[in-house]
Structure prediction request, 157 residues.
Amino acid sequence: MSWQTLADVCTRLSSGKSIPSLKVKKNGRFPVIGGNGIRGYADEYNFSGECAVIGRQGAACGNVHFFSGKAYITEHAVVACTNTHHNAHYLAYLLSTQQLGRLSAQSAQPGLSVKTLSRFEVNLPSIQIQEQVVQLLGTIDKKIELNNQLNDYLLAA
Prediction:
């Protein structure tokens, strides 16, 4: 295990880009991801790959989700892509336990800056251990998702 800053761990640590609300639809080819997850769909994307998505502004400030695929990531989120020595899904799991919202600027609207996040230190094990943890937690996440679907089905019946 070694302590490293997010700037050292990530090949990309930057905010997404704004998208006109007219381009965000109920249906589309690519999810539009803000600080608190999917907020609609668009016919274009500005991200392709795997990353931890960190909520950057407002109530979602400090929320962390893993994303894999193509999406349009908005300015309300920070994209954290790991280098080859680290696993983006592991980083998302780890950061989701760190209460990143506490790092927000003290203002009327909470906000995390990329500069603040880049200096945040994480203690990471070897890539092999990261991958084992992701496999284990991924199995548990899938079971939780199936249970939630079953609960939704039973409530609708």
